[in-house]
Amino acid sequence: MWQVTLAGDRALLITLGTSIDPALLGQVLALERALQDRRPSGLLGTMPAYASLLCHYDADVTDAARLGAAVRQLEGTVEAAIPSGPSVDIPTRYDGPDLPEVALKTDLTPAGVIEQHAHREYLVYCVGFAPGFTYCGALPDRLAVPRLASPRLRVPAGSIGIAGRQTGIYGVESPGGWNLIGRTDLHLFDPAADPPARFKPGDRLRFVPAS
Amino acid sequence: MIEIVDAGRWTTIQDRGRPGLERFGVPSGGAADWFAARVANELVGNRPDAALIECTASGPTLRLDIDRVVAVTGGRAVSAVDWQAVRVARASSLAIGTIGPGLRTYVAIRGGIDVQVVLGGRSFCQLGPFGGGFGRPLAAGDRLRIGEMVGHEPATAPWPPLHRLPQRGPWEVRAIAGPQTDAFAGDALERLSATACRVTPAIDRMGLRLDTPGLRLQSEEILTVPMTAGAIQVTPSGGFIVLHVDHQTSGGYPAIATVISADLPLLAQARPGDTVRFRIVDSTDAARAWRRISGWLEIDP
Which of A105, A166, B39, B189 is 20 to 30 A from A134, comparing alpha carbons? Predict the structure, then answer.
């Protein structure tokens, strides 16, 4: 059962589930496509993340009840598939400042952490937080470590971090609370490009250690 | 041209922002006090989407190389004539100086500020950073071109005091429950409403950290969800982070309630040490509050 909740007076949040699950992301993206096709009146834009979709609306044209009803009509009718976007290799230097601490917490050597993190295929579940920040999952259970107790004020662009069963790449310099294990020189955000973010939900990434 | 003689504390170019780019991690941004910014443009006869100058805590000193009508609104700028269109003569300077009560002051110049459009807007976005002409706050020596984003004649009368928002705390801020109210105990909203929250020094365009004396709401971290401006996030330590215009577009702390659009300008003017009380309202109240302010903006003063 989809949960439709108010997110202030200009947006609705549709929650389809609460877990990191390719099938749930598939449903979220299918719902988003269905809304783009039907264009309910007053819908301005959508933003997907993992198992939920935010719908911004023009309050001069529609309201939460009308838009919510339009979304509800789609429940059970959208055709979802496991997302299968392009697969991209991310050249990675595994020299992050938190690599030794992550190794201690996971009872692995730093090389063991790299072996667990690299070469497997991850799904992009969300581009959000800050410009170009790319959330991926799911990380092997073995690498699940909590966020830092106190976030860093500045994490450089291209930093690769892990937190819980998520791994992610910072698109721009920003504050951040994830454990930093590596870096890439790939540019994930360019305000002059169209689209400005390098990745989108449904894409697949592989971290490849740079020699 | 406008020359920045002195930059002030944190002075940026803002406009109505970049809605619709959240999917790339880009917040909607724009003037933190959208109402004061809109009035400033209205007073000088600009179109609502003209770019203007947002000043924080201590404003800049500007010099114009041409006679021009300007308007100063928002937080009280001690040394400026505010809430009315005034003519600044060529080669004379306009000093905004210390701001207070309130935190952010807007300076609109007839024609608007013509800096490069990036991702559909002229606003400076702190996360990136990009926009605002220089991809950074303004600095002494910067020169800004004046645009042609004129819609009508400048106003001849001051903006009516009855049609302004409060500029000083204690603040009563209205919020709608959700979207993650279910992550909290059943009495959490009542306890929230009964608490006098205190603004900490950790405030910027991304958000405001509030202390919640006597209130510690328990919640779990949640799966990452999209976030909007106004979301009242509850951190594991029990404090609040209220997201503002340059907010993170997704997050993992549950939001117990979301500030209504009509009251977001109040949070742009709140200063460290101020008291904030949240009042939970419904969508009908929010729509009424929006219509009230919109009505003021349709009146030509």
Answer: A105
